[in-house]
């Protein structure tokens, strides 16, 4: 009888949706929870296509696929990206000439990762819809990435020269491994070193490859860390530890000298405060305002304030960004307004002269990348007005659809999606920031699922 009962229990386990969901969602968990490992191995974002392949298989095997609200806008954007490939061989005036095939690698990279992020997000939504993944589990995974980001920030701030040859990099042919773009993918480095202050300064980048990507992910994951720490069941000692980490995170956030991050955090705080006020929770708004004021005072009354002022006095990238943005807009409107040019291009010279180019003393001079200084400019230049309209249409449609969701997850998810509207002027979204934004959208959409009330008890109004 005992053996028979055990066999029956095993059978129930095999057919239990929750048990199957744990196994099915393991790849998603490993992608997010294990990202420090992937970075250390030299995989980084290269692990994403492998997880997307798993997601594709799992989605294809389903009898039906659930689609979140406003998803049609995103599919239209992907269509615009695909159509723009037809213009890869078109060279607008004032850019370095390229052929269709020479531009194909960069365009394929973007389209491929757009699709990978889409597949992973759609898979996560279906896991949530079927009750195989809890919303609070996904919230905590994204919150964990804030811990990872802060740790990488401290590494980059205090050990900025830390770098090494990863196992993946060691396996590549030397000619391939030395390429600058390949280096950004497979070569683990703690920071990007820049000299716009008149001396070399490390700016945190680990484990996201670039300082701007680090700042983008810092803000996105900070939102979910707050929800995981203070809006889900958690022991007091862990909440105290969360407060300590948030205070400590000000150090790498300031030393990153990332003005976009500072602006983004302020915008998120204002957005969340207004949503709390509108939903009839002035107490929550006052608590958030108090925390924000305390953070500002900590910065102003410590040596961190000097770093902030020094950075504000040295806007080294302002002129170059303005030139790239204006030039990208002009070329698209005049030469390919509908579908753009399929990919980015490099300018001949700079805004001052066509003869200006990179030198050992100024490696970043000249050769500006059109579409490389913000998601909006990249989408517009590479995919035209059609791409820009569908991309913005998706973001605005999501914000509109969930404007009445005043739960903790609802406000947080809307804040992240709204944050992308601000950062698109100076941050590129691919790869990880886009993935985390789409997962935030999935968390928003999952709030309308019947299972949400059973699998997300931590998302009540606070």
UniProtKB/TrEMBL annotation:
- Show the stretches that span the lipid bilayer: 37-59, 71-89, 109-129, 141-162, 214-231, 238-255, 261-278, 285-304, 380-400, 407-427
Q: Keywords for this entry? A: Membrane, Transmembrane, Transmembrane helix
Is Transmembrane found in the keyword set?
Answer: yes
Recorded protein name is O-antigen ligase-like membrane protein
């Amino acid at each position: 009888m005992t053996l028979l009962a055990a066999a029956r229990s095993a059978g129930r386990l095999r057919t239990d949706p929750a048990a199957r969901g744990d196994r099915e969602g393991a790849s998603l968990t490993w992608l997010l929870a294990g990202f420090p490992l992937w970075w250390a191995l030299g995989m980084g974002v290269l692990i994403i296509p492998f997880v997307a392949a798993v997601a594709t298989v799992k989605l294809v095997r389903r009898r039906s696929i659930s689609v979140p609200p406003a998803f049609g806008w995103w599919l239209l954007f992907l269509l615009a990206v695909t159509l723009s490939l037809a213009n890869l061989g078109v060279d607008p005036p004032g850019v370095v000439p390229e052929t269709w095939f020479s531009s194909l690698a960069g365009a394929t990279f973007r389209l491929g990762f757009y699709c990978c992020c889409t597949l992973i997000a759609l898979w996560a939504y279906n896991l949530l819809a079927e009750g195989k993944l809890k919303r609070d589990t996904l919230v905590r995974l994204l919150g964990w990435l804030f811990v990872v980001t802060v740790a990488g920030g401290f590494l980059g701030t205090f050990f900025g020269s830390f770098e090494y040859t990863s196992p993946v990099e060691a396996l590549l042919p030397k000619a391939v491994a030395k390429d600058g773009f390949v280096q950004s993918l497979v070569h683990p480095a703690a920071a990007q070193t820049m000299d716009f202050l008149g001396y070399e300064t490390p700016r945190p980048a680990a484990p996201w490859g670039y300082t701007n990507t680090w700042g983008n992910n810092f803000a996105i994951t900070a939102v979910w860390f707050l929800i995981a720490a203070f809006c889900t069941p958690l022991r007091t000692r862990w909440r105290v530890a969360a407060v300590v980490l948030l205070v400590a995170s000000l150090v790498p956030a300031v030393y990153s000298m990332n003005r976009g991050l500072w602006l983004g955090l302020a915008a998120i705080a204002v957005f969340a405060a207004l949503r709390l006020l509108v939903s009839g929770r002035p107490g929550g708004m006052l608590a958030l305002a108090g925390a924000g004021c305390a953070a500002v005072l900590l910065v102003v009354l410590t040596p961190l304030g000097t770093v902030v002022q020094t950075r504000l006095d040295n806007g080294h990238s302002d002129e170059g960004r303005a030139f790239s943005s204006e030039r990208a807009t002009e070329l698209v409107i005049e030469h390919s307004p509908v579908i753009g040019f399929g990919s980015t291009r490099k300018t001949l010279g700079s805004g001052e002269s066509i003869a200006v180019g990179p030198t050992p003393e100024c490696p970043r001079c000249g050769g500006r990348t059109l579409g490389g200084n913000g998601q909006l400019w990249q989408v517009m230049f590479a995919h035209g007005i059609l791409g820009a309209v569908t991309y913005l249409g998706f973001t605005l449609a999501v914000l509109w659809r969930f404007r009445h969701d005043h739960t903790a997850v609802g406000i947080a998810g809307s804040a992240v999606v709204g944050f992308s509207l601000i950062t698109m002027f100076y941050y590129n979204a691919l790869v990880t920031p886009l993935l985390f934004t789409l997962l935030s959208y999935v968390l928003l959409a999952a709030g309308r699922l019947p299972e949400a009330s059973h699998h997300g008890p931590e998302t009540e109004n606070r």
